[in-house]
Model the fold of this input.
Amino acid sequence: MAITDDDLFNTGKGNAWKTTTEFRTTEIQAKPVNVVYKLSSIESIHFKEDASFRQMIKSKLATELARQIIDNNLGYFTHAYSHMDNNMIVRGRCFLLPNDQIVFLVGLKGNDK
Done:
């Protein structure tokens, strides 16, 4: 539905602005990166009781995730020369979401409407 000037400036109805939102399903191509660290029974006890041990395990997992991102070319890296101080600026970027924002959209091909 297109929005016309009449829709935008029709104040006679008491509703000066009309908006329409249209949703379209789209295929998303993404590659999940998973790493696993298997804990022994003793390590499992430490994991439940020791916050610093949990932090150490999380750091190991994060290091492995970073390696997987680099190895699978899932990051974006750029560099530029800074003429102000004669240094090279190198940047890295990848797109991540917190757990509470991850939503898997599942659809069947041919059901687009």
User: Anything to note?
Assistant: The mean pLDDT is 75. The two ends are 15 Å apart (CA to CA). DSSP finds three helices and two strands in the chain. The longest strand covers residues 76-82.
